[in-house]
Description:
The protein is mainly α. The protein folds into 3 domains: 5-63, no CATH class; 72-153; 167-316, Intergrase catalytic core (hpI Integrase, Chain A), CATH 1.10.443. It has helices at residues 32-63, 72-81, 85-94, 101-104, 113-122, 125-140, 167-176, 180-192, 196-200, 235-242, 259-272, 282-293, 298-305, 310-316, 327-341, 358-362, and strands at residues 5-10, 13-18, 24-26, 207-208, 213-215, 230-232. A 3-stranded antiparallel beta sheet has the order 1-2-3, with helices on one face. The protein has a 3-stranded antiparallel beta sheet with strand order 4-5-6, with no helix packed on it. Strand 1 (5-10) and strand 2 form a beta hairpin. The longest helix is centred in the N-terminal third of the chain and has 32 residues, at 32-63. The N and C termini lie far apart (74 Å).
Amino acid sequence: MSSRYWIFQRKGVFYYEDTVSRKQFSLRTRDHREAETLLAAKQESARQPQLNLQMARVYLSASDPVASTRTWRDVMEAIIDMKHGETYRRWCVAAKDKALVELEKLKLIDTRAEHFLRVLKRGTVSTNVYLRRIHNFALDMSWVPVPVIPRRQWPKVLHGEKRAITWDEHLRIVDREPNAERRAFYELAWHLGASQGDLAHLHAEDIDWSTKTICFERMKLRGRGLKPPLIAFGPSAEIVLSKLPRTGPLFPYLIGLRPADRATEFKQRCNRLNIKGVTLHSYRYSWAERAKQCAFPERYAQTALGHNSKAVHRAYARRAEVTVPALENFEREMRNRIVAFKPQNEAQASPHAVIVPMQAAMG
């Protein structure tokens, strides 16, 4: 094992240089024997961790032959090989992140926390998100014995501010859109609150005109065995749907575009109208806020948006402005409802009728 430090003298004072960091430090002595003793102590303190690391490599190689040579690039390739469809494309793009280039040839066993912290400081929010996933995958596969960065010490993911698109902004975009297919796409996004991918892949066969419902499975939830919801559409959405093809894809052009291309087209239209801070995903935020403002049942809103988590739905609708009604008006309305449903006499009462007490009704 080569020595990490070497000694030299400058103007009578002894110094040593770290061959790893290439930094030089003073030993603060002019005595050669004292300098040799101090340097030997430093060599020993550096030798023990290196010896421990080499011993760890030997033990790891016994159970995993490639443990000593596996790099973070190998981890990323293993993740990408397990992905399909749009998720596969996203991981391929994420793997090209310039901030992650530093880690590609770095061996897992040689990785220290400062390596990750340097990458996170140089990268973006996406770097933080995907590096966490790469790190957790390596942990789950037992390719790293302990976390490189403890879970609580990871820098917090700070996403950019997101907001809903307003009715006025939506109208301006639709009024200025010359292409009928794109105009219908934006109008349905307003009425259904579907993601741009789900909306672009809608087919005429997904519509049941007899019940005025539309049924589609969220692309991100396909293969999980979940039953797609039936979503009723109102008169305004019906007018839009009636102008679209009766067979095959509802949006023949948009279905063939990449999500990034659909997003870019929408951004171009917003820029022309000087509308800032919105994307196609803003239609989902708008739908959630409108649902909250009109007291739409939360379980229905979750189903329509395709979220099983109440927390996710509430995050979408967190900016909704809701006016809390006066308690006395609400009490009066509940009394009127009870009186309206109360039978005139016991003979008219159904054996299965239940009159909900005021306290229970308001609870």
